[in-house]
Amino acid sequence: MPRNGRSSTHNKKATAIKAMKDLESTMLANQDTTILNSATSLILRIGKRHGIRKSGYFGFSICRKCKKALIPGRNSRLRIRSKSLKISCSDCKAVRTLGPSFARD
Fold first, then answer.
1. Tens digit of pLDDT for each residue in 72-98?
2. pLDDT at res. 55
3. pLDDT at 6 over 80
4. Distances (CA, A) of 92 to 7, 25, 33, 38, 52
5. Which residues pair with 70 in a beta bridge?
6. pTM value?
7. Residue 49 CB: number of other CB atoms within 10 A?
8. CA atoms within a 13 Å half-sphere pointing along the CA-CB vector of 36
9. How confident is the model at residue 102 (pLDDT cuts 50, 70, 90)?
10. Could you tell me which of 82, 84, 71 has the C-alpha nearest to residue 39?
11. Are 15 and 50 within 8 A, CB to CB?
């Protein structure tokens, strides 16, 4: 094992990526708001600690202001206007606009 600990850092990051994938699948499977909000807070904490970004649309399903899960129709509103996507959180009234070049996968 190298003295600088590079392999242990890689293992921690791989474990963190696996944990984030598991939490994302938990978000997809559950509709309970307490489970969704706790999963989103854990995803944000893991991502901040290990420098990992959320994959695909999971970055759009979390409010960046109040750190809650955005469920369209329940606590958020999704609007498509002239090639842009507007995501509004009804809890904290934050609006996020994504232009025509946002990532779709």
1. 888 999 998 888 889 999 999 999 888
2. 67
3. no
4. 42, 25, 16, 17, 25
5. none
6. 0.75
7. 10
8. 18
9. low
10. 71
11. no
CA gap 70, 40 in Å, rounded: 10
**Which whole number is the average pLDDT over 40-54?**
89
Sole residue written with tokens 């969704």: 36
Residue whose pair of structure tokens reads 């509709």 in the numeric block = 31
Question: 76: which strand partners?
Answer: 72, 89
Asked whether 84 and 97 are in contact (CB, 8 A), the reply is: yes
Residue closest to 55 by CA, chosen among 43, 64, 65, 72: 43
How far apart are the C-alpha atoms of 56 and 12, rounded to whole Å? 22
Cα 90 to Cα 81, 82, 96, distances in angstroms: 19, 22, 12
The number of beta carbons lying within 10 Å of the beta carbon of residue 46 is: 17
CB neighbourhood size of 94 (10 A):
15
Name the phi and psi angles at 33, rounded to 5: -70, -35
